[in-house]
Amino acid sequence: MTKLCGVLRSALAFLLLFLPQFPFSAVGYRDYADALSKSILFFEGQRAGYLPADQRMSWRGHSGLGDGWQVALDLTGGYYDAGDNIKFNFPMSFTTTMLAWSVVEFGELMPPAELRNTLVAIRWATDYLLKTVSQPNRIFVQVGDPINDHGCWERPEDMDTARTVYAVDAPNPASDVAGETAAAFAASSMAFRSSDPGYAETLLRTATRVFEFADSYRGAYSDNSNIRDGDELLWGAAWLRKASQDDSYLSYLQNNGKTLGADENINEFGWDNKHAGLNVLVSKEVLESSMYALESYKSSADSFMCTLIPESSSSHIEFTPGGLIYRPGGSNLQHATAISFLLLVYANYLEKSSQTVNCGEFSITPVRMRQIAQRQVNYILGENPNGMSYMVGYSSTYPQRIHHRGSSIPSIKDHPQFIGCKEGSVYFNSSDPNPNVLVGAIVGGPQEDDTYDDNRVDFRKSEPTTYINAPFVGVLAYFVANPNIV
């Protein structure tokens, strides 16, 4: 009976991931180059600060121009991370790291124009993040009061809520956000190394200093007990090792892995949990340089990959009936895009060293990993039971009522009169499509049964975020160059 169940499970997994599932042509859903262009363009819609003359998301205007005045520091710029008007540095730094990692791993596969646009998107973040660490033993971690902001439905151009600045001063701990910020700088230094070596050096030098701050004052800056700090310290060290080739960071990974929880093998990857990404990143050292002292990181990376294979005995990742990776909670597509990125990166690492992953009775090849990743991409772009692209502006059918203030309220270009905090409620509650198309935005996505209500009130499904899009940039870059995996 057990053997029969295993056979049936394997057959179901094959049907989910390999056979055409829906009675329509998939050709229109696989314009990866168009999707890549739009996924990068999205970041222009999330910009804070003074917008440049070449701003392509033309319905946006300048916003947050007084950010930092309370602390006598220019904190303009950066990104609003989702559909609200707050700048949260923790997810912004992760977004930056993932955009930079996309360039490091897949930049050479990008069309030159899109590589330039990606570097512009990275620099919009790093220029801001450099301001947040410009004072000794202090890191600014947030701009904007979330309670006041979330009580309004207001364009960023009209913001009249408190732009409270939050900072952490030594010896108070901030190793989670500081560790991620160090990772963002280090990864970005690699992305800019050939095009702007002077800027790259500034980023790497700053990464070193910020990591020292993170490591010296260990602990999470947030009272949220779900947010740990050990993975960010290891993540920051791993990126500094990759960017600098300094052996001291190699020693740090070897000596601190156990105490900082590297062997917890938490099978998740996102802005508040770096474990799976950390293990994949460090595995490159093991695969290329036979760094056996780091073998535990590779073992954890292998274990993570095995959890993604439906026919594996260690599989515990849930899939929707239509084949989408699903994890309970909001913004599910952040998991699908981030996991797809790791699948592609690890597949490249393994292929270059002629290795596979042993999942007990199954051996997982790089091709298999890429097939699973491509299934997620195609689902997001429209190859799903609803025939809907979950990327706004891509294909003819996509979410029209996303949970996003600027997109849902008439543009300041069309309606220059001020729209106050509560005056925007009429647009929030409207059943009309959003007047401004936030091209390239990927929403939170459908439910576990593949259903999706196009409703801006349901933010868990209809809100886009920068950290959903960022890993998808690298994923799409890969499939622009390699469209025929499946």
Q: Strand order across the biggest sheet?
A: 1-2-3
- Count up the helices: 17
Which stretches are poorly predicted, pLDDT < 50 over at least 5 residues? 1-28
* Count of distinct strands: 7
Describe the structure.
- It is an enzyme of class 3 (hydrolase).
- The chain has one domain (about 30-480): Glycosyltransferase, CATH 1.50.10.
- Helix content is about 45%, strand content about 5%.
- It has 17 helices and seven strands.
- It is globular, with a radius of gyration of 22 Å.
- The model is unreliable at about 1-30 (pLDDT under 50).
Layout of helices and strands, plus pairs?
Elements: H1 2-18, H2 32-45, E1 87-88, H3 89-106, H4 112-132, E2 138-143, H5 146-150, E3 165-169, H6 175-191, H7 197-216, H8 230-244, H9 247-256, H10 275-289, H11 295-307, E4 318-319, E5 325-326, H12 333-352, E6 357-359, E7 362-364, H13 366-381, H14 405-408, H15 425-428, H16 459-462, H17 466-481
Antiparallel strand pairs: 1-2, 2-3, 4-5, 6-7
Helix pairs in contact: 2-4, 2-17, 3-4, 3-6, 3-17, 4-6, 6-7, 6-8, 7-8, 8-9, 8-10, 10-11, 10-12, 12-13, 12-17
Family: Belongs to the glycosyl hydrolase 9 (cellulase E) family.
Domain Glycoside hydrolase family: 32-476
Organism: Dorcoceras hygrometricum
